[in-house]
Design a protein that fits this description.
Length: 564
């Protein structure tokens, strides 16, 4: 700590503050990126537990827009941090079931008297566009292989299918049951008491205090005053605090948290899957198959890595890209142990990647499976008539217009070929899943059919090997690589981002001091771009499909609907 850079220095007795709000990415963020990163949040908890300068943590939790698996991972780190003997206090200006679930792990939990608060229960929803399409003159031709593969339903149906209802009900029951179990256990309540509390329709925050579900009702300044008292700061003095962004820059080795000689490669795959980067894409977000394959090959060709962890947070996407990455992960697994660690979603193409690993680890509420195929095209003839658009095609070859002709429905022979092609894609996916999981094809068929499972249900059906977070994946990787569990390992991030030009420019201040500081941080990022060492203890259902839609057509539809 004596040789830390100025931006890594923290006053003794400081309180680490983190605002957990909105989206939480499973990817690492560059110094110049905004937003929250799950690995950096978790690393901050670990560093703070060992950092003698940190007295405790003050969490602002407000309007989370992430899945339950990420919330579970953070919650686990709160409990682990509390083992250090330091405090964790939560403040919730807006509190629903997800925010409360996370905050319930803290020592104290405060809401302002005017907080937005509702404990009314859990819902899942499914929207259907068939009626809209009828009105505007669009006829979707969709091939959906797997009776539970519901992604195409929103285009072709006006109501929920029996199978989709069954699947969503099971997922909802798992979320509800997990919430009741964990919250009642943490707060010393009976499950039945928590059920009754939700069903009572409580709307007064005072009832939370009466039931012992929160510590008290206080404003932020009042909580800070109590924190001053807790850390021994006089009332007229400023509470020393360090925020998430600054503390994320504190490197592990300055706290003595160095890794061991054994290296484990971490490859993060987050977002929808594409085979190549679109020339129109400026952000490069999502999983680009070509880029991820390069990282997988780096891990395979290097002898310094004893194992690899593929961290997946993806609803799927391009089927070909998923298969090409599956192949590379299989080759990697032939040279060293590979563990797949699932975040919020590892479904469809996300599961396709995971099933190539030696072992799969998921959280209880990770969404996975969805072994199925959806593909489709739109017939826009009636829409074209309404807007006065005409399109004529000259073709050679019996099926030349199968994908090109969007002004008419498919002919019977085209529809038959379309269906056979989708069925073939499904069988390849299903058979590869059976091979990868050492399961007979007929048994895999029982759990495939496009059905989405939660992690706990997937584990009971052989689609997942273990329940847990990133730390469980590390432990299994060490076991398979014959590394003793009590030996420290160095986790090397192969997916560490480089800052983009807009991010750099947005981070440059107008003052000379700000510019110098930004330049120093950029040089530091470049110096450590080859890998970062870390020690980690460790429902919106959209896009769970491999869809092949004509983007210009969708643009036309969007523009037309937007004009109505």
């Amino acid at each position: 700590m004596l040789i830390a850079f100025p931006w890594e220095r923290v006053r003794k007795g400081s309180v680490l503050t983190m605002k957990l709000r909105g989206q939480i990415s499973d990817q690492l963020k560059s110094r110049f990126s905004s937003g929250l990163s799950l690995p950096q949040i978790c690393e901050n908890f670990i560093k703070a537990a060992y950092d003698p300068r940190i007295s405790g943590i003050y969490l602002h939790i407000d309007g989370l827009n992430c899945g339950w698996a990420k919330v579970e991972e953070i919650r686990r780190h709160i409990f682990n941090f509390k083992k250090s003997g330091k405090f964790v206090v939560a403040y919730l200006p807006a509190c629903r079931e997800k925010e409360y679930y996370l905050a319930s792990a803290c020592d104290d939990l405060y809401l302002p008297p005017s907080a937005y608060f509702s404990f009314y229960g859990f819902t899942v929803q499914a929207a259907f566009l068939a009626g809209v399409f009828e009105n505007v003159g669009i006829q979707p031709d969709v091939q959906r292989i797997g009776k539970y593969k519901s992604a195409g339903d929103q285009l072709t149906r006006k109501s929920m299918s029996k199978e989709n209802c069954e699947m969503l009900t099971a997922i909802l029951d798992n979320i509800y049951g997990n919430w009741l179990d964990k919250v009642s256990s943490t707060k010393g309540k009976k499950i039945e008491d928590m059920k009754n509390f939700i069903n009572e329709g409580v709307y007064k925050i005072e009832r939370l205090k009466e039931e012992g579900l929160i510590t008290n009702m206080h404003y932020d300044d009042e909580v800070i005053s109590m924190l001053k008292e807790k850390v021994g700061v006089q009332k007229d003095k400023v509470l020393p605090m360090v925020d998430y962004s600054k503390y994320s820059r504190v490197r592990n080795w300055t706290l003595g948290l160095t890794g061991g000689r054994d290296l484990i490669a971490i490859i993060r795959a987050s977002g929808s899957i594409s085979r190549v980067k679109s020339p129109l894409s400026l952000s490069g977000s999502g999983i680009i198959g070509e880029q991820l394959i390069e990282k997988i090959r780096r891990a395979r060709e290097s002898k310094k890595y004893k194992a690899a962890i593929i961290r997946i947070d993806s609803p799927g996407g391009d089927a070909l890209a998923s298969d090409l990455m599956w192949r590379e992960i299989r080759l990697l697994a032939e040279s060293k142990p590979v563990i797949a660690s699932m975040s919020d979603v590892a479904a469809s193409g996300g599961y396709y990647m995971a099933m190539a690993a030696d072992a799969i680890v998921a959280e209880n509420l990770s969404l996975t499976g969805s072994i199925g195929v959806v593909t489709g095209k739109f017939s826009l003839g009636k829409l074209y008539e309404k807007i006065g658009f005409n399109k004529e095609i000259i073709s050679r070859g019996k099926y030349a217009e199968l994908l090109a002709a969007d002004q008419r429905p498919l002919r019977p022979d085209e529809a038959e070929l379309f269906a056979k092609s989708a069925q073939n894609a499904y069988e390849q996916f299903r058979d590869k899943a059976a091979f990868s999981r050492s399961m007979p094809v007929d048994k895999m068929e029982e759990v495939a059919q496009g059905r989405v499972w939660t992690g706990q249900d997937a584990a009971s059906r052989g689609l997942v090997d273990a329940i847990g977070g990133f730390s469980r994946a590390v432990a299994i990787a060490k076991q398979k690589a014959n590394i003793p569990q009590d030996r420290q390992v160095m986790l090397v991030e192969l997916s560490r981002p480089s800052p983009t030009l807009p991010e750099i420019l947005s981070g440059i201040g107008s003052s000379v001091v700000g510019a110098e500081r930004t330049l120093k941080e950029l040089l530091q990022d470049l110096a450590f771009s080859e890998g970062v060492q870390a020690r980690m203890d460790g429902i919106l259902f959209q896009g769970l499909e491999e869809a092949s839609y004509d983007n210009p057509i969708l643009t036309l539809i969007k523009d037309y609907l937007g004009s109505l």
